[in-house]
Amino acid sequence: MTYQKKTGLGRGLGALLDDTDKQNTRPGALAANEGPAPGSISHVLVSQVEVNPFQPRTAFDQLALQELSDSIKLQGLIQPITVRKTGPSAFQIISGERRFRASRMAGLTEVPAYIRTANDQQMLEMALIENIQRENLNAIEVALSFQRMIDECKLKQEELGDRVSKNRSTVTNYLRLLKLPPAIQVSVRDNNISMGHAKALLGLEGSDKQLYVHREILSRNLSVRKAEELVRALQQSGKVPSESKKTPAMTFQYQKVQDDLASKFATRVKLKMQSQGKGAIEIPFVSDDDLNRILELLDW
């Protein structure tokens, strides 16, 4: 690939990062100098870059990635990724993993990268903050990332709120999502139910009641307001309505199996019970890639 120094946007990025002509290097120069210096914009080999282990986003839209990849084939990668050095000629992504994946799909052997220094805590914080600011994370990914920052970075909720520009109540609401049964967390992650639905479910004590309302939301396509009304009715009655038991009752053990399977396959799993101990397990998938992912988990 022939490198030509860009004007306009490229120069704007250089000015933003306090770039100079001496800081722009090519792979050949990198090998001679054992890698670019922190604070520079350089072209790094794709083979030298590894993804960010602290990346809070766990799912990438394959169609959107392909569209970005097609654009990169035509235009090249205009906006550099940001990496940190982990060795003389080894780098780890801080931000821009989506652009990096699309570049690799496009067949690029090298990508422009802004080199900077960062420790593990900074890596996690920067990856989280970048994704939150771009609103690319679903609510469960945000909640898991918040929990990681509390656990791994030893932050209090108030400190965490300051870092991500969220008030304490917002941080608390996200963290409470992790108390929901796995099947409900999967529904939030997959946008089958909204954050508002999840907050309504948190008003119930006991996973059996939460799972009942969750099923009602999905089967009846309830709005958040209707879900809240159902939660209030259940709080007053104190027990799951008998009409919910038209099919054979699912015992706690079977419910746990269903929840564990949903957690393992990261999708909503249905355990369909029949009489005399018979039944079936239903594992839905949304694409060929999703099916391949499930098959790999099954060691197919």
TrEMBL record:
GO terms for biological process: chromosome segregation; positive regulation of sporulation resulting in formation of a cellular spore. The keyword DNA-binding applies. Pfam families: HTH_ParB (PF17762), ParB_C (PF23552), ParB_N (PF02195). Keywords: Chromosome partition, DNA-binding. One of its GO terms (molecular function) is DNA binding. InterPro entries: Chromosome_partition/occlusion, HTH_ParB/Spo0J, ParB/RepB/Spo0J, ParB/Sulfiredoxin_sf, ParB_dimer_C, ParB_N. GO terms for cellular component: chromosome. Residues 42-132 form the ParB-like N-terminal domain. Residues 1-37 are annotated as: Disordered. It comes from the Bacteria. SMART domains: ParB (SM00470). The keyword DNA-binding applies. Transmembrane segments: none annotated. NCBIfam families: parB_part (TIGR00180). Belongs to the ParB family. This is ParB/RepB/Spo0J family partition protein. It comes from Hufsiella ginkgonis.
